[in-house]
Specification:
Layout: E1 3-9, H1 16-23, E2 30-36, H2 43-47, E3 53-56, H3 61-70, E4 76-79, E5 84-85, H4 90-97, E6 104-112, H5 116-132, E7 142-144, H6 145-150, H7 161-169, E8 176-185, H8 187-192, H9 194-209, H10 214-238
Parallel strand pairs: 1-2, 1-4, 2-3, 6-8
Antiparallel strand pairs: 4-7, 5-8, 6-7
Helix pairs in contact: 9-10
């Protein structure tokens, strides 16, 4: 099997080199495709020597990943976030489990950071995914090229595109739930407040379940994160000795 690792990026100059350097030993067995959303920083120039293809498209994670997949030649597509690291022997682990009856899957997850709650959140994410058959992008979704095309690729919606894709793929097969862990950055959780992010994400998921337009969900998410950032910055200016 041949693999294609597709990485959606937008202004990732701080993390893209470390992400791609970690993938260099895999390049004999896979191609690395950067699906950039027209970054205004140095993401593309930093990625060029370390990737097989750097593709530019309209901003939007689903659109970027679909665009990257359109250039992929691999039998299996791996959608990887720029702040996430694959486990050792990831390609072999996938190849051992993917077959005609199991055409997609994801990894368990570990969130990097100092808070003990990040371990709890990661474990809950893995359990929930195993129970529901729904994965998030942080868990690194992998899928056969044929199955990805059969379900019409990622729905090009503003938010929850990973959940929508998983729901479509479940009609083909249950996911392979690998216990090996990807390591994803917990910075967003710690920066914006762990409990606030938990409440926000569950609220958005519930709204999505009841049919709220993903465009509205994306607006609510962006507005909430911005508000939390401003409040956190103000709090730290007033009480600099207290961590958020």
């Amino acid at each position: 099997m041949k693999f294609s690792i597709i990485i959606p990026t937008l202004n990732e100059e701080k993390s893209i080199q470390s992400c791609l350097l970690a993938l260099q030993p895999l390049r004999n067995d896979c191609e690395i495709i950067i699906a950039d959303g027209d970054s205004i920083d140095n993401t593309q120039s930093l990625a060029l020597p370390l990737a097989d293809k750097v593709i530019t498209s309209v901003k939007g994670r689903a659109k970027q990943m679909n665009n990257g997949a359109s250039y992929a030649t691999g039998d299996i597509l791996i959608f990887l976030h720029a702040d996430t690291c694959l486990p050792e022997n990831a390609l072999q682990l996938i190849q051992q489990k993917i077959n005609t009856t199991s055409q997609w899957g994801r990894f368990d997850i570990q969130l990097s950071g100092n808070s003990y709650m990040l371990k709890v959140i990661a474990q809950m994410m893995s359990w929930r995914s195993r129970l529901t058959g729904i994965a998030t992008g942080d868990q690194v979704i992998f899928v056969t090229h044929l199955a990805f095309q059969a379900v019409g690729q990622y729905p090009e919606i503003s938010l929850m595109e990973d959940i929508a894709l998983c729901k479509a793929l479940k009609k083909i097969s249950r996911p392979v739930c690998l216990k090996n862990k990807v390591i994803s950055s917990g910075r967003r959780w710690e920066h914006n407040g762990i409990y606030r992010i938990i409440l926000l994400m569950w609220s958005l998921r519930l709204r999505y379940f009841f049919g709220t337009d993903p465009k509205k969900l994306a607006f609510l998410y962006a507005n909430s994160i911005f508000t939390q950032y401003k409040l956190s910055a103000l709090w730290k200016r007033i009480y600099p000795s207290i961590n958020d």
